[in-house]
C-alpha cells in the first residue's frame, strides 16, 4: 500500500536536509585540509571578518601572517589563536603592523611579509575604510585617505608579492570588496569610487596573471552586519516612502562576519574568480544598472529625497 503524500513529503524534506547538512560538513572539512601549510596573509586580521578568517585558516593548518594597525589587538588575537591550539596541527601566526593609510611604509611591509616564510600563497585584502557624507562636505584629504586604504594599499601589496608568485607560478590574491564596487549609492561617493577602482584593478590583474597559474578573486558583499540596532522603546518610526523603504530594507540586509569568512575560505579552496554575496534586491539593482539605469536612478533619487536610503545604508 502506497504511503500518502502528506507522509512522503515531510520524509523527503528531512532526507534532503540531512544530505545537504552532510554535504556542507564534508565541504567544510575538505576546505580546511586544502589550506594546510599554505602561507596566508590577512591584511586586517583584527576586524570582525579578519578575526573570523584567522580562526578558520588557523584551524585549517595555514601558516598565517596577520596584519593590522594595532599591535595590542594583534597580540590579543595571537593569544586567542594559540591558547587552545594543538602545536602539532597548527602554526603560530606571524604578526605584522600593516597600515594602508601610510603608503610610505608599504615597501617595508612587503619585505617584512616576505621575510616571514619567503613567499605568499594566499593574500587576502580585507582592509576597508568607510564614510557616509554628502559629496560637498568631504574634503580632498579624506578622499585621498579612503583611496589609500581601499585602493592604493591593496594594489601596492598585491604588486609587492606578485614577483614571488610569478616565479613560483602559483598563488591566490583575494580582494574582499563591496557591492558598492559595482553599484554606487548616494552619500557614499568616496567609498564607492575607491571600491570601483579596486574592482577594476583586480579585474585587470586577473587577466594579466592567469598565464602564470595565479588566481585572482573578488568578493562583492553587502554591508557587514556585526550587530542589530532596533529602535529604542517609544521611539517613533520615521515616515518614509513605501517603495524606497522596502528597497532600503533589502539593500541594508547585511552579511555576518562569520558567513563572509566562510565564503572567503570556500573561494580560496574552489578558486572562484568572482563572488557576489548579496540578497536578491541588490542583485536586481545591479541588473537595472546595466539594462535600465533611468529606473534605478529614479529610485535612488527618491530614496535620497525621502531620507530612507541615506539613513539606512
Automatic annotation (TrEMBL):
Keywords: Membrane, NAD, NADP, Oxidoreductase, Signal, Transmembrane, Transmembrane helix. The keyword Transmembrane applies. Belongs to the short-chain dehydrogenases/reductases (SDR) family. SUPFAM superfamilies: NAD(P)-binding Rossmann-fold domains. One of its GO terms (molecular function) is oxidoreductase activity, acting on the CH-OH group of donors, NAD or NADP as acceptor. The chain crosses the membrane at residues 6-23. This is Dehydrogenase/reductase (SDR family) member 7Cb. It comes from Seriola lalandi dorsalis. The lineage of its organism: Eukaryota, Metazoa, Chordata, Craniata, Vertebrata. InterPro entries: NAD(P)-bd_dom_sf (IPR036291), Sc_DH/Rdtase_CS (IPR020904), SDR_fam (IPR002347), SDR_family_member_7C (IPR052148). Gene3D superfamilies: NAD(P)-binding Rossmann-like Domain (3.40.50.720). GO terms for biological process: intracellular calcium ion homeostasis.
